[in-house]
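Researcher: Let's do a round of design. I'm pasting the C-alpha cells now; please hold your answer until I've finished.
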C-alpha cells in the first residue's frame, strides 16, 4: 500500500507544548500524540462573540507556500450583524443579516483560539460537511488551542 502526504490542519492544546512553539516553528507533526490531524484543505472556523452574541465565520484554505510548506490562507469572512467594536471592514457587502468580505490575502501562522468554559466552543466546518464543535476533534482545557496548517499521512 502506498503512503502519501495529505494536507490538513492540526489542533493542539497550547499548554501541552513548549512556550512559544507557535512563534518559533516548534509545532508538533501531525503524527505527534499531542496533535489531532484533520485532513481538510478547505474549512470554515466559526464562533459566537462572547458579549455581543454575534456569529463570526472565517473560510480558510490549506495550501503549500513557495518552499512547499503547508500554510493557512484566510479567503473570506462573514459577520452576522454588528456590535460594539465589531464593525465590518469598509468593503464588506451586506447580504441579509450577514456582512461578507474578502480579507487582505496573507498566509496565516498558527491561530491561537481561546476556548473558555464560559462560552460556546469554536466550530470547525470541513468543506461540504456540517459544522461540529471543536471539542469533537480535541477536548478543551479551558485555555488556548492552536490550529495550524500541517501535513499528515494518507494511504
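Researcher: That's everything. Go ahead.
Model: Designed sequence:
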Amino acid at each position: 500500500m502506498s503512503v502519501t502526504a495529505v494536507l490538513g490542519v492540526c489542533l493542539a492544546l497550547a499548554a501541552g507544548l513548549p512556550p512559544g512553539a507557535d512563534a518559533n516553528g516548534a509545532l508538533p507533526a501531525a503524527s505527534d500524540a499531542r496533535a489531532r490531524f484533520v485532513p481538510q484543505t478547505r474549512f470554515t472556523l466559526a464562533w459566537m462573540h462572547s458579549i455581543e452574541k454575534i456569529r463570526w465565520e472565517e473560510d480558510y484554505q490549506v495550501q503549500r507556500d513557495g518552499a512547499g510548506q503547508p500554510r493557512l490562507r484566510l479567503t473570506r469572512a462573514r459577520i452576522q450583524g454588528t456590535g460594539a467594536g465589531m464593525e465590518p471592514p469598509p468593503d464588506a457587502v451586506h447580504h441579509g443579516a450577514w456582512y461578507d468580505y474578502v480579507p487582505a490575502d496573507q498566509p496565516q501562522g498558527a491561530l491561537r483560539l481561546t476556548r473558555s468554559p464560559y462560552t460556546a466552543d469554536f466550530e470547525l466546518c470541513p468543506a461540504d460537511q456540517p459544522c461540529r464543535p471543536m471539542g469533537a476533534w480535541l477536548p478543551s482545557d479551558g485555555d488556548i488551542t492552536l490550529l495550524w496548517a500541517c501535513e499528515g499521512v494518507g494511504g
